[in-house]
Amino acid sequence: MADPATISPATLLKDELDIVIPTIRNLDFLEMWRPFFQPYHLIIVQDGDPSKAIKVPEGFDYELYNRNDINRILGPKASCISFKDSACRCFGYMVSKKKYIYTIDDDCFVAKDPSGKDINALEQHIKNLLSPSTPFFFNTLYDPYRAGADFVRGYPFSLREGVPTAVSHGLWLNIPDYDAPTQLVKPLERNTRYVDAVMTIPKGTLFPMCGMNLAFDRELIGPAMYFGLMGDGQPIGRYDDMWAGWCTKVICDHLGWGVKTGLPYIWHSKASNPFVNLRKEYKGIYWQEELIPFFQSVTFPKDCTSVQKCYIEIAKQVKAKLGKVDDYFNKLADAMVTWIEAWDELNPSGASKSSDLPNGASK
């Protein structure tokens, strides 16, 4: 494997990475990202009213999918894609034909490092994904593959090769990713602390995954990146990325892959309304006290050798154990199975199959 400190990641993955953006508004924010995003293909998933025209700045190569496109492409299986929630973004993962995905929210801008230089978030995510992870033994100097770092004394040599990195989880300056109760008690809190570090989350440890600055190896872990049933018609919202993160992490632990968190930072520009968020999150805040022990206890039979098999097994356990908590989890388990069926239809034998161009698609 190439030394990630010496490669030119942006050039290397130009034709191997899609940027997925969920939105309900014009994408003016792309102007700030133009120097970094313009070489890449964008998949825009429009939420809300499909008759509303979304404007994309000129010069970007993109596909734009709205709810009508999702219904047309997936048919009855479109029921597994959330509506009026940023969870709709996972449709973009399904129709992508690339090895890697970077997803970002439309209220996230380019951050600056402590020296005042613009941060190329995409480049750092690519570096994370192209270097190994170390989930089986913690390195106290964090990422040992970074220039200027290495494995510390006492680190087993048999583990120094590392394992493939499936997920790169980036962070945010300015508005932190807080839940509604924390927003309410700390309305003016801002994250100004730039920590210059990347670390592998250890095996057996869950984490709260935020979808607004996230990259992953689609070929490796894509089928597990389902953002659940959220938003319109559902009793819960704002737990879509959390659900995907918990499912993804237990599958990565089982299959021997890594998840990194830390750099890169983006600038999160606006806080959502805490009262609206509380209404969306209320059941999630209550249910997560059952969900975390559930995921901590998930085990897989030996025949779960693929992401799809692992995900179907989680769905089975969700129905058996969480269905008692609320009937919502029975519906979610069914949707998880539908998601895998739809994924496999659009991506037979793990390879992407081209689908009809959506309305408003740009080549």
From TrEMBL:
Name under which the protein is recorded: UDP-arabinopyranose mutase
Glycosylated residues (UniProt): 153
EC number: 5.4.99.30
UniProt family annotation: Belongs to the RGP family.
Predominant cellular place of this UniProt entry's protein: Golgi
Pfam families: RGP
Swiss-Prot/TrEMBL keywords: Cell wall biogenesis/degradation, Glycoprotein, Golgi apparatus, Isomerase
Reactions mediated catalytically: UDP-beta-L-arabinofuranose = UDP-beta-L-arabinopyranose
InterPro entries: Nucleotide-diphossugar_trans, RGP, RGP_fam
GO cellular component terms attached to this protein's record: cytosol; Golgi apparatus
Record site: Required for activity: 153, 160
Localization (cell): Golgi apparatus
UniProt record, GO biological process: cell wall organization; plant-type cell wall organization or biogenesis; UDP-L-arabinose metabolic process
One Gene Ontology molecular-function label: UDP-arabinopyranose mutase activity
Its job: Probable UDP-L-arabinose mutase involved in the biosynthesis of cell wall non-cellulosic polysaccharides.
Enzyme kind, highest EC tier: isomerase
